[in-house]
Inverse folding.
């Protein structure tokens, strides 16, 4: 089993920045890929960014490319999402996801961007 705990969400004005963290514990050696997703009210959960846990390769949704950066600290088993140039449409609950033996999800952290 892998446990994921997100933190770092909050309220920020448009144009501001936030850094989300996702601490992984448990059977972290099984993790191959980690992702960030988000879900806005009344909308489906959508992909934001992905990172290969060992190799470090990354990919982003077009809506966040150039503004968000996904990274990880393998020694700390922690995933990050640096969000710059935030827009009101980035408002959502942000979830981290790990692909290990199966899929694991965190509980989510709220990000609210005011205009």
């Amino acid at each position: 089993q892998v446990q994921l705990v997100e933190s770092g969400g909050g309220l920020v004005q448009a144009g501001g920045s936030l850094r989300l963290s996702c601490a992984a514990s448990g059977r972290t050696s099984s993790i191959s890929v980690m992702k960030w997703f988000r879900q806005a009210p009344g909308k489906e959960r959508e992909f934001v960014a992905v990172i290969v846990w060992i190799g470090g390769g990354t990919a982003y949704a077009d809506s966040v490319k150039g503004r968000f950066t996904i990274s990880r600290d393998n020694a700390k088993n922690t995933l990050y999402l640096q969000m710059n140039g935030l827009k009101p449409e980035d408002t959502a609950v942000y979830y981290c996801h790990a692909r290990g033996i199966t899929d694991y999800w965190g509980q989510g952290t709220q990000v609210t961007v005011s205009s």
